[in-house]
Design a protein that fits this description.
276 residues; mainly beta; 1 helix; globular
Length: 276
């Protein structure tokens, strides 16, 4: 299945990750412990302004089954059970949240050498139905997705996209927001030796004729330190420095300056992830 096209949600994901992943303008701490029996435990705390929220996440892996249980500050319990190869090349996931008795959902992903199909159905009397599909190969793929709300008998989304992936670059074109916006993204691996990468994203909205764009870069200063930058047309500039100070333990500093809010202080964020 190495030549299979990626699921539809992965179209444009590489550029999006470079532009958004790991940027954090709050104070965040996480501690992860993995046991030899397949049991993993992660505690996360986040301080945003004067509010502190946290969650406790437990993951258990056994054979082709993964059980993921998360408890948050408000006593919500989210559970997801994923089974790989429930049928050949098929992965199924059952998720639900307590106390929300209408949150149950079943997801099924099927990978074929020339196609990928992903479906989701809500487990309630008026379910939300979602279906996405891509055809092609790992290098070139074309796909689309639809979402249908049975309660209102209406489509809540329909999007389409195409992706081209090469060893040194990846480009994607997406028609989103029910055909109201066109999104183009591009990522180029300038120097794989030192991890220098650049990415750009342009969004055009047909109704307002508005264009927005974001550009960013990533560079590995050394094997343990990565610096990222990001600039957008709304006048915001951001940077990130991530250092692996011990194996799998990361310290991340983020900052963002808004040139249109000259009286506002720059946003700063710290994140510490420990994996003993």
């Amino acid at each position: 299945m190495g030549s299979s096209p990626a699921p539809f949600l992965d179209i444009g994901k590489k550029a999006k990750d470079l532009l958004t992943k790991d940027y954090n303008f709050d104070q965040k701490f996480s501690l992860s412990v993995v046991g030899a029996t397949g049991l993993g435990l992660t505690a996360t705390g986040l301080k945003r302004d004067q509010i502190f929220i946290g969650d406790l996440n437990t993951i258990y892996k056994s054979g082709n089954t993964i059980v993921d249980v998360k408890v948050d500050t408000y006593s919500n319990v989210t559970t997801k059970v994923t089974v790989s190869d429930v049928l050949p090349s098929t992965k199924a996931a059952l998720s639900f949240k307590i106390p929300d008795n209408k949150s149950g959902k079943l997801d099924v992903l099927y990978l074929h050498p020339q196609a990928a199909f992903d479906s989701s159905i809500g487990l309630n009397p008026n379910p939300l139905l979602e279906l996405s599909a891509t055809i092609g190969s790992k290098e070139l793929s074309l796909g689309g997705e639809v979402g249908f709300d049975t309660a209102s008998a209406s489509f809540i989304k329909y999007n389409a996209g195409i992706s081209l992936n090469k060893p040194d670059f990846s480009a994607a074109l997406l028609l989103t927001d029910k055909g109201q916006a066109l999104k183009a993204s591009y990522i180029h691996y300038v120097d794989t030796k030192n991890g220098t990468t650049v990415a750009a994203e342009l969004i055009h909205r047909f109704s307002s004729y508005q264009n927005t764009f974001t550009i960013g870069s990533s560079h590995a200063v050394d094997p343990f330190t990565v610096i990222k930058t990001r600039f957008s047309d709304d006048g915001k500039a951001a940077m990130l420095c991530q250092h692996e100070w011990r194996p799998k333990s990361l310290f991340t500093f983020s900052a963002q300056y808004d040139s249109k809010a000259v009286n506002a202080a720059p946003k700063l964020g710290l994140a510490l992830a420990l994996k003993p």
